[in-house]
Amino acid sequence: MKISIDKTLPVSLQAQIVGAIEYGIMAGTFHQDAALPSVRALSKTLGVAQLTVSHAYNALKTMGLIETIPGKGTYVVHERQVQILDNQVTELRQRFQQLLADGEGLGLSPSFFIGLLNQDPSATLTLPFKVAFVGNSNRINQCYLETIQQTLNLGLQADSFTFHEFDELQDTALESYALYITIPHCIPRLRQRLADKIPVFAPYLLPSENTRMQLAALPADSQVLLVSRFENFIPAMLEGVKSFAPHLGEISVITLDDDDLPQALKTRQIVIYSTGCHSYLQQFPAAEVMFEYRHTPEPRYLRESLLPALHQYAQKKG
């Protein structure tokens, strides 16, 4: 479990620590229940003040991503609901293994069961209830929902809301949804209003396949500039680029409202921008390569956590 910072970046050290750990949790690198270094140990490793690490940990606790257990240490939060679903997935696997064993006793190979599953590959199960996705942008929310439906082969009755729209929902409308989906660090914001009445899920987010392919194709000697609308997104964005393009050397970062942006764009061959920056960047001369850094829900989480929850609720409705 590696946490790194860059003291040359125009981003506070606290924000970098928060972003690095948040990205690690989203990407599944920092697994649920994983122990984090103590404040003293991490401050020594990174060469920063203990107070900086302490403030970063407090911010992550407020986001609901980590927790400190007195006398034991600090850990990535493992939601009770996720634990229940993990147990259910384990039980399903055991039952499936037993089914295969029973089939073998009848002279049936595993391919027989695969054939049953593939008899109608175009069939899509439509669930008899509504879900809602809450995020920063309805355009991005819809992309996430499409990915979820395609990955799980489900027909979801789903609505999309920005956080402002979610805050404006009446209680009756709020309670018309079976469950809510959001981005990881925003779970506390939804739960503050929903309490424990309606479950909230947050898929791990990874750079999309197209983003990963573009990152991998960049020449090692590229001069790369990362542009983000928000300073607090830069650390997670930087971690994602480093993870999927470890061959890159010099990487600079800047926010969209920085006065030095026009000059920075002139001196970099490659510009990678976060969602929401494209229309603003169009007013400047285009770099040799310019593309959007976009996240997508991680498939394993969708199949092993979200899908069982959806089926469980469907059974209750049935």
Which helices and strands, and how do they pair?
Elements: H1 13-26, E1 35-36, H2 39-46, H3 50-62, E2 66-69, E3 73-76, H4 80-105, H5 110-117, E4 125-135, H6 138-152, E5 154-162, H7 163-168, H8 171-174, E6 179-181, H9 187-194, E7 200-201, E8 205-207, H10 209-216, E9 224-228, H11 234-244, E10 251-255, H12 261-266, E11 270-274, H13 278-281, E12 289-293, E13 295-297, H14 299-317
Parallel strand pairs: 4-5, 4-6, 6-7, 9-10, 9-11, 11-12
Antiparallel strand pairs: 1-3, 2-3, 8-13
Helix pairs in contact: 1-3, 1-11, 2-3, 4-14
How would you characterize the overall build of this protein?
The strands form 4 sheets. This protein has a 4-stranded parallel sheet, sandwiched between helices. A 4-stranded parallel sheet has the order 10-9-11-12. It has a 3-stranded antiparallel sheet with strand order 1-3-2. The chain has 4 domains: 11-74, Winged helix-like DNA-binding domain superfamily/Winged helix DNA-binding domain (Arc Repressor Mutant, subunit A, Orthogonal Bundle), CATH 1.10.10; 84-116; 123-204 and 296-315, 3-Layer(aba) Sandwich (Rossmann fold), CATH 3.40.50; 208-292, Rossmann fold (3-Layer(aba) Sandwich). It has helices spanning 13-26, 39-46, 50-62, 80-105, 110-117, 138-152, 163-168, 171-174, 187-194, 209-216, 234-244, 261-266, 278-281, 299-317, and strands at residues 35-36, 66-69, 73-76, 125-135, 154-162, 179-181, 200-201, 205-207, 224-228, 251-255, 270-274, 289-293, 295-297. The model has no long low-confidence stretch (mean pLDDT 84). The chain is of the alpha/beta class and 318 residues long. Residues 11-79 form the HTH gntR-type domain. InterPro entries: Tscrpt_reg_HTH_GntR (IPR000524), WH-like_DNA-bd_sf (IPR036388), WH_DNA-bd_sf (IPR036390).
